[in-house]
Amino acid sequence: MSIRNVFVIGLGTMGLDIAQVFASHGMFVHAYECNEQFLERAKARLHANLAKRVERSKMSQEEMDYILGNISWEVDDYTKFADADLVLEAVAENLNIKRDIYKRVEEFCPERTIIATNTSSLSITELAAGTSRPDRFIGMHFFNPATVMKLVEVIRGMDTSDETFETITKLSRKLEKEPVEVSEGPGFVVNRILIPMINEACCLVQEGIASPADIDTAMKLGANHPMGPLALGDLIGLDVCLAIMDTMYSETNDPKFRACTLLRKMVRAKKLGKKTGIGFYDYTAK
Fold it and tell me: Partner of 283 at 20 to 30 A CA spacing, among 82, 87, 132, 244?
């Protein structure tokens, strides 16, 4: 199956970057948000990001125009889904919100349409069960920033067909990404390893073992990590880290996935990292 028309639902940090990746590789993208305010904010953010790359000679004006020319901006009008080859959902990690979107999408999209989710931890099988096409439902998990990071986890649910898997794997390579095949499991591969490490770093801060800066320095110099775990948590979003920990804990009941109390308190205080200006580090002056 050839993928030409891609519908991206949810234009937060991940969704907007994913839309840019598709558009830059010659696919026509319908970029969807739930209201006009969110949509205009996303449009302005993409234009500013691309303009900055042109200004720094990292992209030509022609490349910028090509990307923007491949994106149609839409607000909550699902009638255009009749042309969808692929629908990729990148909204909040909430099962009910995602399922409601799939129901609305299926009212209009053709039988051939593949529905993919960028979920970082929710069950692909459970999400697919809320649709009429579990064989054409799959996880397509990009990493932040999606315009730079090469990995895509291609995650099979219990009923994902081989044809769907092969289509998304081939598409990932067309996007110049490196796909890895993943059978569904809590946290998949990267987050199953990465998020507990970030959580443990939070515990070290909570216990007064070391400062956030010293913990990050130790991991960069001692483990050759390009970024420390707490700075990475701030980049991902501490609310996302907490949601993934809670999902893995609820799926396994394994105490090794119990979220650090400090992490939960910071999320309650809206200290989520870069997106709110403060997390383990202060970004307001940068």
Answer: 244
Beta bridge partners of 140: 154
Q: What is the pLDDT of residues 152-176, one digit of tens each?
A: 999 999 999 999 999 999 999 999 9
C-beta of residue 10 within 8 angstroms of C-beta of residue 33: yes
> How far is residue 178's CA from residue 170's CA, in Å, rounded to a whole number?
10
Question: pLDDT-based confidence at 23, cuts 50/70/90?
Answer: very high
Return the sign of the alpha-carbon dihedral for residues 201, 226, 169, 8.
positive
Catalytic residue (one of 33, 89, 106, 153):
153
Q: Give the Cα-Cα-Cα angle 224, 230, 231 (nearest 5 degrees).
A: 80
Q: Does the active-site annotation cover 184? A: no
Distance, in Å, from the CA atom of 224 to the CA atom of 73, rounded to the nearest integer, reads 41
User: Is residue 120 flagged as an active site residue?
Assistant: yes
Give catalytic status of residue 57 as yes or no.
no
**Annotated catalytic residue, options 120, 121, 123, 199:** 120
The answer to whether 88 and 6 are in contact (CB under 8 A) is yes
Half-sphere exposure at residue 138, Cβ-oriented, CA atoms within 13 angstroms: 28
Report the mean per-residue pLDDT for the chain: 96
**How do residues 237-247 score in pLDDT, each as one tens digit?**
999 999 999 99
Cα three-residue angle 200-202-204, rounded to 5 degrees: 75
pTM of the model: 0.91
What does the DSSP assignment read for 97-121?
HHHHHHHHHHTTS-TT-EEEE--SS
